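wait is this the right file?? whatever heres the structure
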């Protein structure tokens, strides 16, 4: 089982007296590579990986936006998953992978693409009276947001200003995304969590501006 990103010390005690050993166990984080026509993710845990993505390119002289939200299984358990998205992997593409077991997170794109990754918008957090994170209130027109609770499930909220997933109900240049309004992704049986807890992972792509931000919840 992979642990959270970083290193841990594991104390192993044998049956014989005074044979305890300190062994360093190093977590190997997810790695994401975008190549010609495919996205490869390495160091995937036994529960698979959530892949959130967006691509934008000209198709038959028409600007075409494609959105992706998949749970990918590592069928042969070799730690490597390869995904071939519809429309390929054009220059303008953002990809986020989150391990379903550990919550390990990686964001990437093609090597020749100047990906715009923003700090997580702490000022947009909406918390309840108990201090639990319940929503994000962002000055954006659209957002694809995924929540992953390691070893439990993953949920997608695809919001548009003034749309059914915009909790303020107004077309006002702002998007209020409530986490209990998510749709379960493949393999998730639990309902979308109304409040986030420590170690939950949030990732979001602004598909209008082609920007991305993500974080693991600390409290």
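ok assuming it is, sequence goes like this
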């Amino acid at each position: 089982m992979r642990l959270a990103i970083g290193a841990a010390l594991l104390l192993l005690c044998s049956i014989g007296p005074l044979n305890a050993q300190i062994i360093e166990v190093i977590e190997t984080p997810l790695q994401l590579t975008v190549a010609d026509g495919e996205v490869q993710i390495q160091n995937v845990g036994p529960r698979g990986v959530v892949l959130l993505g967006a691509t934008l390119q000209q198709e038959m002289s028409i600007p075409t936006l494609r959105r992706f939200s998949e749970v990918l299984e590592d069928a042969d358990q070799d730690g490597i998953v390869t995904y071939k998205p519809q429309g390929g992997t054009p220059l303008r593409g953002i990809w986020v992978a989150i391990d379903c077991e550990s919550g390990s997170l990686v964001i990437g794109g093609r090597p020749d693409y100047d990906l715009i990754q923003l700090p997580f918008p702490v000022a947009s957090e909406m918390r309840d009276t108990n201090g639990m994170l319940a929503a994000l209130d962002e000055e954006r027109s659209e957002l694809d947001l995924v929540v992953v609770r390691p070893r439990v499930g993953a949920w997608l909220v695809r919001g548009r200003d003034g749309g059914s997933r915009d909790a303020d109900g107004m077309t006002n240049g702002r998007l209020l995304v409530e986490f209990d309004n998510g749709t379960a992704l493949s393999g998730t049986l639990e309902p979308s969590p109304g409040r986030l807890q420590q170690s939950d992972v949030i990732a979001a792509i602004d598909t209008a501006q082609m920007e991305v931000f993500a974080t693991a919840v600390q409290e």
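The chain has one domain: 7-216. so i think its the right one actually
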